[in-house]
What we know:
With 507 residues, chain A is an alpha/beta fold. Chain A has helices at residues 44-51, 74-79, 97-102, 113-127, 142-155, 172-187, 199-205, 228-236, 295-302, 325-330, 340-344, 351-356, 372-385, 402-415, 432-447, 459-465, 488-495; strands at residues 4-15, 18-29, 33-37, 59-64, 67-69, 82-85, 160-163, 191-196, 208-213, 216-222, 254-264, 270-280, 283-288, 310-315, 318-319, 333-336, 420-424, 451-456, 468-473, 476-482. Chain B is globular.
Amino acid sequence: xxxxxxxxxxxxxxxxxxxxxxxxxxxxxxxxxxxxxxxxxxxxxxxxxxxxxxxxxxxxxxxxxxxxxxxxxxxxxxxxxxxxxxxxxxxxxxxxxxxxxxxxxxxxxxxxxxxxxxxxxxxxxxxxxxxxxxxxxxxxxxxxxxxxxxxxxxxxxxxxxxxxxxxxxxxxxxxxxxxxxxxxxxxxxxxxxxxxxxxxxxxxxxxxxxxxxxxxxxxxxxxxxxxxxxxxxxxxxxxxxxxxxxxxxxxxxxxxxxxxxxxxxxxxxxxxxxxxxxxxxxxxxxxxxxxxxxxxxxxxxxxxxxxxxxxxxxxxxxxxxxxxxxxxxxxxxxxxxxxxxxxxxxxxxxxxxxxxxxxxxxxxxxxxxxxxxxxxxxxxxxxxxxxxxxxxxxxxxxxxxxxxxxxxxxxxxxxxxxxxxxxxxxxxxxxxxxxxxxxxxxxxxxxxxxxxxxxxxxxxxxxxxxxxxxxxxxxxxxxxxxxxxxxxxxxxxxxxxxxxxxxxxxx
Amino acid sequence: xxxxxxxxxxxxxxxxxxxxxxxxxxxxxxxxxxxxxxxxxxxxxxxxxxxxxxxxxxxxxxxxxxxxxxxxxxxxxxxxxxxxxxxxxxxxxxxxxxxxxxxxxxxxxxxxxxxxxxxxxxxxxxxxxxxxxxxxxxxxxxxxxxxxxxxxxxxxxxxxxxxxxxxxxxxxxxxxxxxxxxxxxxxxxxxxxxxxxxxxxxxxxxxxxxxxxxxxxxxxxxxxxxxxxxxxxxxxxxxxxxxxxxxxxxxxxxxxxxxxxxxxxxxxxxxxxxxxxxxxxxxxxxxxxxxxxxxxxxxxxxxxxxxxxxxxxxxxxxxxxxxxxxxxxxxxxxxxxxxxxxxxxxxxxxxxxxxx
Lengths: 507, 356
Ligand SMILES: Nc1ncnc2c1ncn2[C@@H]1O[C@H](COP(=O)(O)OP(=O)(O)O)[C@@H](O)[C@H]1O
Ligand SMILES: [Mg+2]
């Protein structure tokens, strides 16, 4: 076995209201590529920020080559040979590669450009990190900028290199190039850690894997000793309570039809890839998947917030593709977005103003004026009907708790008698009471004939709520199963990107 | 632990700022600005109390002084309304100066072109032309912002300088008074193009327009469907988009209304006060109006009050000139007030606590 480079023992880190890491143990070995795998929010970045001295752990110890260390800052860490490439690059755009590498270098105040350039070239050749030292950062592609970050760390003498979600911004070709470079580095004895939530990268490129879930280190193993289905189960957790909440079969005609829908994410990369799906009236169709696999893009494509690059979206025979958001709302599409504050509700506006968001064009509030008596009455009606706890309907919604916010949002969205409800992570961050309430509302709407598209990362929720389960992975549909036939193992495998549609028998 | 007993001052965000704190902070900030400026006055050998006394007395101490203060306040109000409208939607229209000038130019062209029209149609025509000109001038940064997301601060500001040059071109060129001496100004408008004034003062009908505009603007912003859209878009573009609001269209619309109001301020100034177009018409009214709008927290009624105070400041600034004190003192005070009110805002938004 190879030599231990880093050992983290019993790490705990809390932020106000969240335990980001607890009792986390991690061993990193020289000459290996180590994958830190876990869902969004599992605590991966926090753990690595602790290792590089950015955060101070509440508890726990770190050993480097068996020596106890206590880094006060990333500077301490890099001096000891631990360097990190963050998700957001820390490069000065108008400066050249050389200048960026030299920035923050201690020592002689006379900067020797030729010497630095020579050393950069040396590092480039040694590991295959091709980049032009004199190029300005803004001229470089994202992949090249990432290489500059890596060079920066190597230049400073990193023997342990950590990369936080390095592939999130890369194209598949760039991903392959990156891991070739990382392999070169491992072969020279460096210890590499990369953070990801993508199963196939782990299986393709890692030697050793540690899975984090909800702040805990669940398990560490060599890649050859595991498989995707085990990893999927470790990531999302096994314990699924099978008590159904959605007990009536009310499934009706086809309401929503997606035909080969494609769309790009904010970085311009393909995030939804020829997605084809049908949702029926009176049905809850759950989209299962590890967060960040195109769920948000899917929800935005359906509701008109994101342009389609391909395909068609049809609601009861009417083409919604690339219609305006307004028209789509008017066709009866309700949207419970992932982002309650940033999108679904305006934090500083009153309850009344927030209740009106979707309905303010309704002439019942007045022709040009908005009758304040009518709007107030509407707000009070919804607040009472959904038992939203607020001081007054004039208070800004930022004073409300998460559960009450979500109730208010659902009250508004279901008030227009939607034909389709798109709900994205609707129970994220809610307590059990609020969760039950949200689920009751969705089931009631479904029983009354609405088609419900429930996007969730919580298999527990999915098994309680769904009539059918569709799995999304890297923007593609992996398959659709009726909930009765959806074995947890199969769903887990599909979530990890394994195609099980033909070969069901050997699972 | 060594630093266990160390006291620390921390800022804690307030969930809601009580109204009285906001008011208190503003009043205290204005006083702080007066004190701050008095240091400068002292250094230049003036007695600050005397300067402030003279300024106050000439601005508010007599009915004549107050009437002159109101005259100065009218264009400030109009431009501030326009600015407030745009700022409500978080569109930073810094171009009121230019929009006001273009409004004045358009009104002047009408007044000089149709000297034979009866008074009411002529004045109405001048108002319409001024609003269209100001609105179109603001449309340029509006379109650039809306379609190419060009920063409106830069474009609207730069257009102010273009506007000044356009005015210069006209008063030195085509509109220059053919009978006058060599001054760069137009000939005086016919009487029909003058806004009527009250009694023996120079306060003109424009003040009624301004007060009406305040009421209308308040209702538009707070009671109409469009005002609601402006509020939501200003609060969060994301939420507005999610709700199906047309952000592009509203940016354009708001910029045009904003420019039209400033343009109307230009019209009332040429038609009500100067009775001709001269290049020194504005001397930074459009910039002062930004300060007024901001101090007023974009509330139209507060704008009326603050404009009168600032009108007093400008008016008082002229008077102290006669005592040998630079009129720039008034400008310095304006700047200092804005500086302190902006700085004081932190006390309105945060609680200060000392912890051990
Ligand atoms: N600086 C911070 N302040 C407060 N909470 C934080 C901070 N950083 C992370 N968290 C919280 O800690 C948890 C773990 O976050 P993170 O380590 O970023 O997860 P991951 O990188 O696995 O997605 C999350 O619930 C996140 O909201
Ligand atoms: Mg992270």
